[in-house]
Amino acid sequence: MARFTELETYDVRFPTSLDLDGSDAMNTDPDYSAAYLILRTDAGDGLEGHGFAFTIGRGNDVQTAAIEALRDHVVGLDLEATLGDLGGFWKSLVHDSQLRWLGPEKGVMHMAIGAVVNAVWDLAAKRAGVPVWKLLADMTPEQIVGLIDFRYLTDALTPDEALAILRKAEPGRAEREALLLERGYPAYTTTPGWLGYDDAKLVRLCHEAVAEGFTQIKLKVGADLDDDIRRMRLAREAVGPDIRIAIDANQRWDVPDAIRWIEALAPYDVWWVEEPTSPDDVLGHATIAKAIAPTRVATGEHVQNRVVFKQMLQAGALAVLQLDSARVAGVNENVAILLLAAKFGVPVCPHAGGVGLCELVQHLSMFDYLAVSGSVEDRVIEYVDHLHEHFLDPVVIRAGHYVAPVKPGFGAEMDVETLTDFRFPGGKIWNDLTKENQ
Ligand SMILES: [Mg+2]
Question: What is the pTM of this model?
Answer without folding.
Answer: 0.97
